[in-house]
Known about the structure:
Elements: E1 2-5, H1 20-31, E2 35-39, H2 50-53, E3 59-62, E4 67-70, E5 73-77, H3 82-94, E6 98-102, E7 107-108, H4 118-127, E8 131-132, E9 145-149, H5 154-163, E10 168-172, E11 177-182, H6 187-198, E12 205-209, H7 215-220, E13 223-228, E14 240-244, H8 249-256
Parallel strand pairs: 1-2, 1-12, 2-3, 7-8, 12-13, 13-14
Antiparallel strand pairs: 3-4, 4-5, 6-7, 6-9, 9-11, 10-11
Helix pairs in contact: 1-8
Amino acid sequence: MVLFFDIDGTLWNYKNEISDKTIEGIRAARKNGHKCFINTGRARAFVTNENLLGIGFDGIVSACGTMIEYNSEVVYNRLISAEDAIRTIETVRAYGFKPILEGPNHLYLELSDFEGDMYGDKVIAEMGDRLRGIDECWGKWEMQKLSCATEIPVEKRDECFEKLSDLYDYMIHSDTVVEMVPKGFDKGVGIEKVCELLGEDISNTFAFGDSINDKEMLIAAGVGVGMGGTYHDLSEYADYITASLDDDGIWKALKHFELI
C-alpha cells in the first residue's frame, strides 16, 4: 500500500507537535512494507521541520501536487512562468491582495504586508533565511502556487479571481485568506502522479486528511481517512473517520485497517 499524509491538523497540531503514536505508527507501516508520503499544500520550502522529516518518509508531494520527491530525489517540479507570475502579482496587488509566493526553495513576501498578522508571523518565524522579498527578486521567483491575505468585499475578490481564471483554481480558507493553485493540480493529482511513478494501482492507496482542502486526495485515494474532531465534516468525502489528532487518530486508523 501507499499511504499519503496531510501535515497541518493531521500529522501535527497548530503548535507543530507530533504525537509519539503517530511517529510510531508511520514507522511501523514502513517496516511492514508500505510506502509513506507527505501530501501537503505547503510548498517544499515550507516543509523543513526536522522532527517532521525525521519520522521517515519515502517521498513528499508538495504545493498541491506541483512537486514530487521520491527517495530524496525531485522527480517532478512544475513552476509558474515568469510572465504568468508577473501578471498574477500585478493583478492581485491591484485588488489589494497581499501575496505570498510559494516555491521549492523559498517563499516570497513583503514583510510590511504582514506586520502583526498571526499567519504571517508564523510563516516568517518558520521560514527564517529561506524567506525572500517579492520586489527584491522581481521576475526571478521560483513559484509553484500562491496564497493571499485579503480583506476586500467578496464581489471584488471574485472579480480578481475571474481575471486570473485561466491560470488558477481557488480555495477559500477564510474571509481573509485565499489559496491560488495552478489549474489541473491538487493533492489528488499528486496521488495519481505518485502511482504512475511507482506503477501502483491507485486502489492500493490510503490518504489521511483533516480539512476541506484535503477533499481531492480523500476522494482520489483507494481509502480516504478523515481525522475526527475537526471543524470540517469530511464524511461526504472520506471512507472512514478516525479519532482526532490529539487522540492518536493516525495510529488508530493504521491499526483499524491492519496496516500495522
